[in-house]
Write the structure tokens for this entry.
Amino acid sequence: MPPPEERLRLREAAGFSRAHFAATVGVGRQTIANWETGVSDPTPPARYPYLRILKGLAEIYPAPPAPPAPPASPRQLGGDRSPLHRHAHDASAATRPGARGARRPGDAAGSGRPRD
């Protein structure tokens, strides 16, 4: 049995109303609506004719191909920063007060020793 969304798609693709489907299957219009929205699933004795109609319509109106997957975001690929951004971020950590290896005013750049 196709999922409710596919049931609806097939009926609409064929241009049939819910009332027409209901009369063909031998149920009420609201029953067809419930089957197409997932409120309930078809049960015997109406299940068999309904399924036959849906199978026939699926042959005439095949499901459209699935849309391509969206491209992976940088976060899904292992982070939201480029390697250059990460490098710049890591370098800025050394200039924060109290950070390990932090430079103090007057330190020579990169040497870690005070300038003469």
Remarks:
- The mean pLDDT is 79.
